[in-house]
DNA sequence: AAATGATTTGTTATCGTTAACAATGATACC
DNA sequence: GGTATCATTGTTAACGATAACAAATCATTT
């Protein structure tokens, strides 16, 4: 049924050389005569040979694979992130081994361990609930990079988002618009990110009227706002998806976002553009570039990036 | 710097057995005495041993990897698809090797070949521009499954979407609403999918007023509708993203989608819900389940699924 | 022409695991 | 007791590639 594999030996035989010579050809080693090189390449072409990545990995220790772990690929922030990483990986002809944990901490833990053990040249994680000790146990096995979250005590690379600064801008902006009563619609209160956004916002805005935590899903805030009786002057949401839920609920109540009630999101996913949502932009593309730079140079630094206010129509 | 790898030999030494016995333990072979099993497991625990996936792959031919190739992970249809596949893969403890071709045909060709050669147990593709011969050359090397697109002449597995039937429903619906003049805002005219949706729609609706092709991006239709002078009574869009662009443009023109002009999308991505978009739902979750069923049973069939009309507010 | 050095090629061993077979020890049966 | 039977364990070789070394070839110098 399945065609048998063409190996380096087949190529060697057909081209009348040794496996080693073939290996040298496919790896562009300098000391191969033009003539044999040609013969080998012919044979490769004729047989449709391609080196076996796994065999290489086992011998050289280099896998040419980058692992990515995110908590929910359906969230535009993460699709955006993965999309950009893919762009770069394609350029460099690397493969991506991808995992989505569905925000489940146990799954997260498991796939993290498995990725380390299956062998990746670098592992990019957008940590949701990683426990510190757990992570640090493996920090010396692979190049691990935290994408977004700042974990000061861990000896791993980071491109971290200064969430405090970002949320603070949002707070200051809403304050400057004369808002007095805000309600925050946040995510998981045990996540660093959530905490940072809350505290940042408060630094910029001052006292908060109300604070609620939801699962980071569009339907959650929709249902809440739909049912709530007393509306604030403004909502600041954990991300754009949740803001989308708010907007929809408001509209159904006959309330115009941006006029009667202000709504702000976070991330600047593409729905923000579609909905004219005022939000805080995270520079994903730039972050990915920095990440690859660090991976390539094996620099285990912690680089900070700052989000930026995007004023549109809803606030 | 990097910690050296713990291998099966280390475990054997520590537990006073042979590598083969250890192998048997980790693979749950029956004939291992309880006693040695315990000793081995202890040693594994103590050393933090995990089998090397690459070594296994090379020896057994099974990689435990599933390859996915999509054209744009930022498109909600594909994030949804990948998300569901991940859910199942997680259950089965398989890894996913993922590739995004950015709709580039050459990249698509390249990663396809590379995936085949790097070794995956199955390869799920959502083909954009695959050329037939190219695909069939590899059809006997790996289990290849086309997700969505119907390629009748190719000897590969499929869970294909009956786009004609889906688009036809849309056409019939719009006709039943008394619409006379429609405009179709479609994608790449060389894609099977595009063609099927056009012809299906015409079967349901009849004569079409106008037909345009765009890159499958939100901004494209937005700019177009923004500038166009004469509006039809209804738009039927290639997907929800493009419909989102239309809606935004209409609103900016002071036109209410669903009242003055009807707008329909396709896919039923989550923005459809957010925007109250009338659309055609593709049953992704179900498709993924069928796909895995086929992969597991090694059944090279072509299963058809039918989309379903979702009436909301914009049409 | 012999010696030297540089270039090109081949050999052997190994990466971590498992398949196939061999060996050991225990148990059962006549 | 001796042999057949079974469960358990170990040995060897191999998967496909490459690193490290050795050998062969060629060109260059004296």
Q: What is the alpha-carbon Rg of chain A in Å?
A: 25 Å
Q: What is the annotated CATH architecture of the largest domain in chain A?
A: 3-Layer(aba) Sandwich
Mean pLDDT over the residues of chain A: 92
CATH topology tier name of the largest domain in chain A: Rossmann fold
Tell me the name of the CATH class of the largest domain in chain A.
Answer: Alpha Beta
Shape of chain A: elongated
By CATH, the superfamily of the largest domain in chain A comes out as: Response regulator
How many individual domains of chain A? Answer: 3
Biggest sheet descriptor of chain A: 6 strands, parallel
What is the count of β-strands of chain A?
Answer: 12
Structural class of chain A: alpha/beta
Low-confidence stretches of chain A: none
Helical amount among residues of chain A, as a percent range?
A: 40-55%
List keywords for this structure.
homodimer, six-stranded parallel beta sheet, Rossmann fold, DNA-binding, 12 strands
Structure explained in plain terms:
Two copies of one chain form a homodimer. In chain A, α8 (163-176) packs parallel to α9. With 315 residues, chain A is an alpha/beta fold. The first copy, chain A, has a six-stranded parallel beta sheet with strand order 2-1-3-4-5-11, with helices on both faces. Chain A has a four-stranded parallel beta sheet with strand order 7-6-8-9, sandwiched between helices. Chain A has helices at residues 8-15, 19-26, 34-47, 53-60, 76-91, 105-118, 132-136, 163-176, 192-205, 218-227, 240-252, 270-275, 284-297, and strands at residues 65-70, 95-100, 122-125, 143-148, 157-161, 182-186, 210-213, 234-237, 262-264, 279-281, 302-305, 308-310. Chain A folds into three domains: 8-51, lambda repressor-like DNA-binding domains (434 Repressor (Amino-terminal Domain)); 64-161 and 284-306, Response regulator (Rossmann fold, 3-Layer(aba) Sandwich); 163-281, Rossmann fold (3-Layer(aba) Sandwich), CATH 3.40.50. Chain A contains 13 helices and twelve strands. The model of chain A has no long low-confidence stretch (mean pLDDT 92). Chain A binds a DNA duplex (30 and 30 nucleotides) through α2 and α4.
């Amino acid at each position: 049924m399945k065609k048998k594999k063409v190996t380096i030996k087949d190529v060697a035989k057909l081209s009348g050389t040794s496996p080693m010579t073939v290996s040298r050809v496919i790896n562009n080693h300098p000391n191969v005569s033009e003539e044999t090189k040609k013969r080998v390449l012919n044979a490769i072409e004729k047989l449709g040979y391609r080196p076996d990545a796994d065999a290489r990995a086992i011998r050289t220790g280099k896998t040419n694979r980058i692992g990515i772990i995110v908590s929910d690929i359906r969230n535009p922030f993460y699709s955006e992130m993965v999309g950009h990483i893919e762009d770069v990986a394609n350029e460099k002809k690397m493969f991506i081994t991808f995992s989505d944990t569905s925000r489940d901490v146990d799954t997260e833990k498991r796939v993290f361990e498995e990725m380390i053990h299956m062998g990746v040249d670098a592992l990019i994680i957008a940590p949701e609930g990683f426990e510190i000790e757990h992570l640090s146990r493996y920090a010396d096995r692979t190049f691990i990079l935290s994408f977004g979250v700042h974990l000061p005590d861990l000896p791993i690379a980071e491109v971290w988002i200064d969430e405090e600064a970002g949320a603070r801008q949002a707070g200051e902006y809403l304050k400057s618009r004369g808002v007095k009563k805000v309600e925050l619609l946040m995510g998981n209160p045990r996540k660093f990110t959530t905490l940072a956004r809350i505290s940042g916002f408060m630094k910029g805005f001052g006292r908060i009227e109300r604070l609620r935590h939801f699962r980071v899903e569009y339907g959650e805030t929709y249902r809440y706002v739909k049912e709530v009786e007393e509306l604030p002057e403004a909502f600041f949401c954990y991300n754009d998806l949740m803001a989308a839920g708010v907007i929809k609920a408001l509209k159904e109540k006959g309330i115009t976002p941006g006029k009667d009630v202000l709504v702000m999101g976070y991330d600047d996913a593409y729905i923000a553009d579609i909905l004219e949502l005022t939000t805080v932009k995270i520079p994903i593309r730039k972050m990915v570039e920095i990440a690859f730079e660090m991976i390539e140079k094996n620099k285990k630094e912690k680089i900070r990036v700052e989000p930026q206010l995007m004023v549109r129509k809803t606030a």
